[in-house]
């Protein structure tokens, strides 16, 4: 008899022939997430089971499992050999609160087990009642459940609760994306959303030292670290944007600052993607949130992207919906600490809300964009979330 944690995975079941692949990625992700704890993760009859962990790590392991995409639910459980007397002996030790109602639910995956599910459930119900005569069975809306899962492996699992987890798809099964990560509320949430669908992440951050401070950069690294709890470890490419912004400020009309800046960010993001085989660019834009997030502005940034899709998972969300997710995933508090974003440096008084492409092209002709991008690309600093 021992204490284990049962893991159920959801949508993976739908993936037919690819199922083996999805399962392999998921178990690797689970092992990576739990690598700092002494424990084993095994596959037992269509479930994963975490076992042989130190009792003291149990809560933190449960917490980590809830952050892994592809896991549907988990249950702390007691594992018993599947024979009637062992199960009954264990069930005798179950203590439910006085004067409450309960139901035993048996799942018999092992069809050789000598009792049918409902027969065994009522037998075990009787055993529990024999230990505590203040309890009552209620099969319709019990206050407590006792689940008994008899697997084909010769093991039975008894548990009391099903803890809902993050769901989604295992990170790594949905391609690779490059997240434009700022220090704000939105972009970490955007990264979370795509990782939730199985996309593995890398991030790119533009900073304008000395206009933006070292602590603004640190803040972005902290956000990346928080995101890595869900997305797994990833690299952050830090690009100095200072010279580019100075050049735009010097040569282009003021109201075009943000439009041109964002077009150059996107160009750099796509080049970096080509180099490292990222397959999509991800941003935290939401329609109409600010001047640079109108459909015209997005048309102007999309125009410079040659091949890759640009994913904007927050496009139809209100700020309060985004804030709710940021709070849930634990990035909100860091995001709202004060910082300067490079987008706020040389901020024009009246940014263009509806940039016209031909005019943007005219402004860009005043710059040596190729040269500016080349220099920025040559001086990228790379930080791994592992090292933060
Ligand atoms: P966020 O809260 O994510 O900073 P925001 O509401 O402040 O977003 P913008 O500043 O217009 O909006 O940025 C829109 C998106 O552009 C961000 O969500 C992010 O994906 C990207 N972005 C903005 N600034 C940077 C930066 N310094 N480095 C990398 N990406 C950035
Ligand atoms: Mg921002």
Q: What does this 3D model show about the protein?
A:
- This protein has about 400 residues and is α/β, with parallel strands linked by helices.
- The protein folds into two domains: about 160 residues, 2-Layer Sandwich (VC0802-like); about 210 residues, HUPs (Rossmann fold).
- It is about 40% helix and about 20% strand.
- It contains 13 helices and 15 strands.
- Helix 5 runs parallel beside helix 6, helix 8 packs across helix 9 and helix 8 packs across helix 13.
- The longest helix has 20 residues.
- The radius of gyration is 27 Å and the shape is elongated.
- The model has no long low-confidence stretch (mean pLDDT about 95).
- The chain binds adenosine-5'-triphosphate and magnesium ion (MG).
- The site of magnesium ion has 4 residues, from loops.
List keywords for this structure.
binds adenosine-5'-triphosphate, 13 helices, six-stranded mixed sheet, VC0802-like, single chain, nine-stranded mixed sheet, alpha/beta, 388 residues, 38% helix
CA-CA gap between termini: 40 Å
Give the fraction of residues assigned to helices.
Answer: 25-40%
Number of domains: 2
CATH level 1 name of the largest domain: Alpha Beta
Structure class? alpha/beta
The CATH superfamily of the largest domain appears as HUPs
Spans of 5+ residues with little confidence (pLDDT < 50)? none
H and E string? EHEEHEHEHEEEEEHEHEHHEHEHHHHE
Rg to the nearest angstrom? Answer: 27 Å
Largest sheet: 9 strands, mixed
Number of helices: 13
User: Globular, elongated, flat, extended or rod-shaped: what is the shape?
Assistant: elongated
Bound molecules: adenosine-5'-triphosphate, magnesium ion
